[in-house]
Each structure stands twice: as C-alpha cells, then as structure tokens.
C-alpha cells in the first residue's frame, strides 16, 4: 500500500500500482501524481476548502472512463469527477482522496443540427464556447450560468445549473434531450433520443440531471436549442426601501411580462461591490437600499418596447428614483457591472463566503430576507444578498474573513441552521441551483423525510454499489 | 384459492378473502367483484383488447392506496392502476388479472396558488376540469391532450402526455413541480417541492413522469401554470402534394414562429373523416392530399397577426389553394372539426386501429410517411396518418375491421415491424407520447441496448421488488 496523503483507507492497491494501471488506459502523459500539479485540483470555488488526493487523470473518451471506473471499482478507489471547478458547495472536491477525473479533454462540439435544433457536445466543453458556437449557427442556447466562461456544460447538467435568465428559460435540465453517461460500474449508455418527444421506456435522462456526479459521469450531452431573440434590453431601478423592491418583484410576476432576468441586489452587495470596483456606478447613492436589474429578451421589437414601458410604469409605483435603460452592449456592461462583480468583491481582500441559495415562494421574499438579516445580525455575521428574485431563489451569502470561514465557526453553523430552518418552514428548499455537494449534506434531513432519504440512498447504491463515484456528496 | 377468471396464478390468497381485506381498507361500497360491473374496467382504448380480472377497488386517499399495496404485496397480487382509461397502448389493461385500482375518487382540486402560479390536484381530476378551474383563476395550463375531456391528470403525468400544442409548450412532464406518489411497497412520498427551482438532493419527480404506472401510483400533482394568452387563432391550408406540406412544416420550424400546433392530416384521414361526418367540410376537395391545421397562441395582438401573415406567405410558396383563418370559437370549431373527428371516424362502422406514434427527426418527415405508406400498401393494410408534424411525432394508424385487428394478423405484425425498424434507423423512437404499455413491449429491444434494457428492468425491480404494480407493461 502506498503512503500518499489522502489515500483512501479501504483501497486495495498501492497508489503507484494504480497509477500504472491508469496509464495503461489513458497513456502516460494524462495520469498525474506530482503533488504540486495536483494542488490545482484540490479545490473548487467552495470557500477555501482543500482536499488532497492521489492521482489526477484526464481521459479523452467515454471508453477510457469506463475502463478507469472498472479498475477503481475493482480496487475500491474513490473517483471524483471534475468539470470546470466552479461549484460553491463542494461538488468537485475529492473529500475522500483517491482519483480526480478531469473532463477537460472531452472538449469537442460534435455537431450542431440546425433543422432539428440541437447541439451535441462533449461534457468538457466550456458553456460560453458552446453558446458562442450555437450563436454562430443562428441559434440560441439560453442557459449560460454566471460561471459560464469557465464552467463545463457537463458539470452544468450534473448540477442542473440555472442562469440569470432562468426565470424565463428554466434550468439547463429542461434542454437535455439525451446524454451519454458512463455508469459507476463502467457501462456506457445513452439516456434518451435526439428527437423532440419520447415516451419510450423509462426515461433515463433525468436520473442524471442534477445528480451532482454521484450516479454516473456525463460524457456527451444533446441540448435542445432555441431560435435567436433580439438583443437583450436591460433596466436598472433603485429603491430606498427593500420592501418596495420585493413588492415590485411580486407585481412583475403577476404582470405576464416574462422577463429574462429579475435580479434583486441588497444594500450590502451594492456597498461592498462599489467599494471593490472603486469607480462611479449607476444608481449607487447613500440612500439606495436595493437594486432591481431586469433583462428583457423578446422576438419582436413591439413586444420588447411595450414590456419595457409596462415595467417602467410598474416600477414607478414603488420608487421615485430614476430608472435606467440600456440597449447597447456598452450601456449594458455599465448597468450590469455591479451585479457581475459581487462574486469578485466577496472574495477580495482576504474575504470568502458561505454560499446559501435556498429557494422559497416568491410571496415570502421580503419576510425571508428580513429573517435572514436578523439571524446574521444576531450572530454578528456579514450578509450579502442578491440573485434571482422572481424565482424566489436568492443568494444570501455570509461573508467572512477567510481564516474565520475555514474554521466553520459555531456562529456560522448556527446562522446557517436558522436560515435553512426558516426557508423550509416557508415551503422552500435548501438549494435552488447550487446543489448539496459536500457542504450542505447535514441539512438534507431537514428537508426530506426518512423515507425520501432512504430512497435516495438506495438509488445511489443501485447505481454505484461500491460507492466509489463522487463519494461524500449529497447523501 | 378462488377460481375467478383471470386470477393470477401465483397469488397466495383466495380472491374472496382478498376482497374482504380490501373492504376493510376502503369500505364495503368501494370494492367490487360483480363480473358485469367489472366489464367496464376490462378495457381501455387499446383496440378491442379486453382482460378479465378479479377485484375493482376505488380508494379515495393515498393512505388507503398504501394499505392496498401492502396487502397486495403480501399476497403477490397484480395491481393495475387506472386513470380515465384513455390509453391506446394498453397501459391500463389488467393483463395479469388481479386487482384494478381506479383513481376516479381522487378527484379534488386541492388549491390554485395564483401568486406562485401552481395548481395542486389529486390524480383523478379530469384534465379538462383542471384546465377550466385554472382558467377561472386567470391562469393557463397548456397541456390538454385530445383525450382531456375524460383522461385524468395523474394518468397524463404517468404517460408524460402531449397535446396538440406540445410543439410550443412541451409535454406535461415539463410542468410537474412536485408529486405525491405511493410506492409499490406502500411508502408515500413527495417527490419535489412547490417552488420554482430546486437542486436539493436527487430529484425524484422525473422518475415517475412517463413511467406508465410501473414504479408508483401518483396520488397528487403540483403543476406549474402560465399566464393566459390571447384566444388562439387557427389556420387551415390544403396541399395537392404531400411533399409540399412536409416542406412547409420544415420551413415553419426554421421560421421562429413558435406556433402552438402544426397538425398534418393525410389524404386517407381526410377522406375517412369526411365520409364519417357526411357534411361539407372546409378545404375537402378531391385533389387535396394533405391539410395543415396550425394554431397560434400569443400574448400580443401584433405578434399574433404578424405571425399569421408570415405563415400565410410561407404557405403560399407550397400551395395555390386558399388558406382559411379562424378567429371566433364557431369558426375554429368548423376549421378543426375534421382533425378532432379522425379518432371517431377510425373507430366507426366496426373499425378499429393499431396505434403507432413513432417520433422521428422532422427533416425525415416526408421520407418516413412515404415508407410507411409503402409498407402498408405492400401488406394490403389501410393507413390513416395525422398528427404533430412539427415535432416529427406522427400518428400513423393502421385501420382494420375489428375482428381482423383482434387477431393481430401476421401482416399487421409485419407492417408494424417494418415501420418501427425504419423509424429507429432514422434516429427516431417507438413512441412520442402514447407510451409502450403492453402493446409495444416487443419493440423496446429494437430501440434500446441490452445495457439500457437491463438498467430499466433493474430499476423496476428496485421500486417494485415483487413486480405487483402494473405488471406486463413496458418491460
């Protein structure tokens, strides 16, 4: 048995022998054991968590992944699949050590079928690259998460990722027609078909969407595409009272406007990000308590402009401040600059954050925020909230000094407990789009009954009898 | 052991003793063994197939269904759940005898939440009633199958039913937020949450959508609702050449028009239905080979009228015949009368049909129809085709005299073989929306690999270890 740091206790092979076997599958140059190089794969974007592991492997084909999983099953080796590493709940962290399997070499766009309106891509394609390639063919793929410049499309499907425009278009799972998946036991299957509709046998596709890589490794995805819409128009409104912003969100929901995005940005998010950017930003004034950044994506100019007018009128009921509208790329960059730098601001100056993305009924939005604010204030914690208000999917981040955060201080735990307890009491869920990963595991039993949890656990064992695939996640 | 017709061979209890146990669960008046009454539940709309069984039970609550399933598990009794009985592939046929469990008493609309835009309904609510109740609250539920006047919403979810407007709105599965399901072993679970988004644990909802009642009995559904759109406008066009109609469909797909329905109706369907109705019908003339019935549902009058103009221009490229437009209810009834009487025509005068609803790439539509026509002609079979052309989901029905059909003549088998073989060679699937049921089982292995089939079989055993729930279906 080898002695590498993080070697799984129950492995039945020395790590150097396993590395040799894996080199036989993928070739010498795609199996890595150099500790310094492996450091890059010990983390994702989940706070500053870091887990050492033994072997990094970069296969290029489903058949190689199949062989890797068969070997790891034989020797009881944990395998953590890794996409772009953009997760914030620990989904790609090798918490049990062993093997990290990076999908970065599965990076081919296989085909774009214009008539049937789908794209086939390997799972390691960067989502923004996929969107661009699709756009060049005159089509549109709407689910580009904020992390899209580096997250992988396979990872996005594994997490059932949302985007800023999910209130109009839904999460990525709604677009998956078919997938190639390698099961933990090595079988390679396609889960659906490349046609509009199917009621043929049990639909295996949704088993893997959002399963966070614990049931199988996605190697190809077939995604439904949309016709392109007009360039987005954005609108930024500011409010002196948070309650007014929340009421405006409810009115928008009732107004049949179908906006592509309705992002609520709270006072701390505005102040922290404005400080981080250190430049004048639109509608950032001392008395502003909240922003709404709204996007409109439509097919017809008339509809676009009528929706815009209707929105401006609606918002005027809740604020006397100016409402800004952006149509050009430059204007939109300026308008959304604050929103898209909140993440950078939260991780600047030695800070990091505990991600909380509960999804609650939109009618409870204001009360939920107030309670979360109270809980954080009561525990002397700094809260930054923003996000997908129209879906009730708010990101309420607890921002702390990195050293504090790493320790998972009791006050942090207490605050997170209180927030989830309240969210669930409202009929909400622990995560709207960021998943459970390793970070949120303790809370699953707060939401689900023992029967539900037992079913999920037994499903995991069904697909992965030896529990080698992404162990320590969700369940 | 009892001697009732159709009694399952391996049951471990006499049927009269079982009936007594079931009466203890649901009450005397909801357990039926009278053979004449049971006749009504021996069939669904699958040709003239008929299967005798022993006991009919009509529970009213999930907890009763849980107790029923526990008893039936204990004594190894087949249980066939039954919704509105509108299936055409044998999904509700008690092919193994035993117990039929009708969901007709679970017929309450529990609540309509306007702000959060969802309806909670028990599974035995008639789908048209649900749509009407939702409409009265100022909202819209778009998936009303042709059978909606008598099919149940739970059955529609169990089959992942489509509707004539699924090319715009998708199948019913896209609207299911949450379900209450009784597992074959008696556990009652909720599968999701009543919020817009969830990435919390394994999503159990899609396991049961489209599983045709073999994995669990759906007792309540929570369906996402849409804002209401303008009254639909319909358009009817006729073509002297089928190829032109198919090319028009492809052009419509490329034209970003997002129609709510694009129904292609073939010559035999037109002739047979016109004969059945025996009255003058719009655009029915001797030289007409195909109709396209197109529906437009939009939120803005401008968009509606612009789409209509664009469609009329597009269609004029492919036919010199008049194009009819209907805006009033009366006009629309007239325009769609033929389409909605095809089913009645096919089952009139002692006729019935073998349902085939393969879904193929829309680019292959014309070639597919030609091949199906050739296969039927070569076997002296009468073909009637119509359906959801924009999705490539055509209903190609083989119409026969009832006595012929019941015998499943070798020519019928040969023709069906040939049609599915060709559909699959095109990348298509056996069923787009009608499911596999008992009728299509032999063809599943044509589409799926042994690995896929084995996975489906093992999933069935996972949920239903004794195989009591809707046995003889899909697998």
Describe this structure in words.
The structure is a homodimer of 475-residue chains. Chain A has 475 residues and is of the alpha+beta class. The first copy, chain A, is 34% helix and 18% strand. Chain A has helices at 15-26, 35-38, 62-74, 127-136, 153-158, 166-169, 205-208, 242-254, 267-277, 301-316, 329-340, 342-346, 365-378, 402-406, 410-425, 444-447, 450-463; strands spanning 31-32, 55-57, 79-82, 99-102, 109-113, 118-122, 176-182, 188-190, 217-224, 233-239, 261-266, 290-296, 323-326, 351-354, 382-388, 393-401. Chain A has a seven-stranded antiparallel beta sheet with strand order 13-10-12-11-15-16-14, sandwiched between helices. Chain A has a five-stranded antiparallel beta sheet with strand order 5-6-9-7-8. In chain A, strand 7 and strand 8 form a beta hairpin. In chain A, helix 1 packs antiparallel against helix 3 (62-74) and helix 13 packs antiparallel against helix 15. Chain A is globular and about 70 Å long. The two termini of chain A are 29 Å apart. Mean pLDDT of chain A is 95; it is low at 1-7.
